[in-house]
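User: Some background: our group keeps a shared notebook of sequences we're curious about, and every so often someone picks one and asks for a predicted structure to add to the entry. Today it's my turn. The entry only has the sequence so far, pasted here. Could you supply the structure so I can complete it?
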Amino acid sequence: MIEELDRVILTVDLPVYGLRAGDMGTVVLVHDSRKGFEVEFVSLDGETVAVTSLFAHQIRPIGQREIAHARPLVVV
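Assistant: Of course. Here's the predicted structure to add to the notebook entry:
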């Protein structure tokens, strides 16, 4: 179950923010019985890239034995 302050993984691309499926964010607010979530995405140097509302199917919890991967942010 996803709660506030949990780290989550994006399951869809969000090109408007330059985000891709697999990017990691932090839940800052849970909406309407976990039907939606406000998620903050932050670059590795601490810059907030986006804070956006997402449906439950657009994120997932972090699984066991997953590893973070760094890439440059490109907004189109």
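Suggested note for the entry: The chain has one domain: 7-61. The chain has a mean pLDDT of 95.
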